[in-house]
Amino acid sequence: MVIPAMEPPAGYQSNFNNPNRAMYYICIVSNAIAMPICSIFVILRLWIRYRLSMQLQADDSTFRHACNLSHMLTRVYSCLYPWILLKYGGGLHQWDVPDDLMSQYHQTVYATMVNYGPTVFAIKAAILLFLVRIFSPYKTYVKWIHGFLGFMAVYYVVMLFLKIFICRPIPMFWGATSDGKCLNQRALILTDNIISLLSDILILLLPCPLTKKLHLGIKAKLKIIAVFGMGGLACIFSLIRLVFIIKDGKTPDQTYKFIQINLTGIAECGIGVVCACLPLMPMLWKSILHNDKPGYSSNARSQFEMMNSSQKRSQNAARNQTSIHHIEAADSDENILITPGKSYITTKVGGRDDITDGGSAGGDSAGLRASLDQTRIYRTVEFHQYEQR
Fold this sequence. Notes:
Strand order of the largest sheet: 3-5-4
Distance between the termini: 73 Å
Pfam families: Fung_rhodopsin
Number of helices: 12
Low-confidence stretches: 54-59, 292-332, 339-347, 354-376, 381-389
CATH topology of the largest domain: Rhopdopsin 7-helix transmembrane proteins
Radius of gyration: 29 Å
Strand content: 5-15%
Membrane topology: Multi-pass membrane protein
Order of helices and strands: HHHHEEHHHHHHEHHEE
CATH class of the largest domain: Mainly Alpha
Protein name: Integral membrane protein
Subcellular location: Membrane
Keywords: Membrane, Transmembrane, Transmembrane helix
Largest sheet: 3 strands, antiparallel
C-alpha cells in the first residue's frame, strides 16, 4: 500500500495515478522558455565582444567571467534542480506524492537552497562590474560600487555557510536522522529574500544619479533607461517571491508551494542574466543594420606628416599609436552602450621649422624659411562627432 507524504485535507483524496499536474506543467514550460532565452543572450554577448572589439581588457575579462558564471549557475538552479524536483514529486500536491520519495525531494530542495545565493551574487556582481566600467571616470561613485560589492560578497558567504549547516548534522534536513538541531528555515529564507529584494532595488537605482548628468539626447537617454530599467522586472519577481514566502511559508503542502516559489526565483535569475548582457544588444542591432563597428572617441585626432624617406619610421610609430587609441575607444563600454554620433572631418595644413619642433599647428607656426628643404609641411586631420538626437 502506497502511503501519502501528507494526509489529504477535508474533501480531497490522494491520487497517485492521475494527480493534478497544473503546476508541474507550468514549471516545465517556464524552464523550456527561460533557459534558451538566457543562453541566446549570453552567446550574443560573447559574439558581439568578439566581432566588434576583437580584444578584452582586464576588467572586462572579470565582468565576462562573472557573466558566464552567473549563466552557468542559473542553468543549474533553473534547469537541473527543477527537473530533479519534478521527478520526486515537485509540482504535485503533497498528498498525491508517495512518502518514500520525500527524502530525495528534500535533498534536492537543500541543494537548490544552497545554490540560490551564489547564483544571485554572480548575477549582481556582473551587473555591478559593468556599472564600474561605464562610470569609471566618477572615482567616488566607483568606490561606492566596490564597497557595495564587497558587502554583498561578505553577506552571501555568511548566508551560504548558514544554509549549508542549516541542520546539524546536515542529513537531518531530509529526515535521515532525528537526532540533531536545525535553524528556523522559514526565518532564514525570509531574511535572505528581503536582503535580495533591497539589493535588487539599490542596483536598479544606482545608475540614475549619474545618468542625469550625461549630456545626451532624448533617444540616447531612453536607450539607457530601457537597458537598466529591465532590472525592474527582477525586482517585481523578487517581491512576488517574498509575498509567496510570507503567505505560504508555513503550509505543509511543500511539494506544491516550493515549486511555485522557485519559479519566481528562476524568473529573477533569468532576468538578471539578460540584464547583464543587455547593454551590448544595441550595438548588435547597429552592426546588423549598418555593418559597422563602434566609432572613435570624441575629437579623436591623428597626424600625418609629409616627410622624406628618412622620417617614415616616426610616421609609422605615430600611426600605430593612433591605431591603438582607436581600438581602445572601440572596446569602451561607453561607446558600446551609447552609440557614437556621426562624424565630420576638418583638415589643417601648415608649416613647422625643423629646428622649432615645439611650434603650434596651422597659422600659429613659426615663420616659414625661404627654403622648403628646411621646413616640415604637415597636415592635421581632426575627427569630430556630434550626437544623434
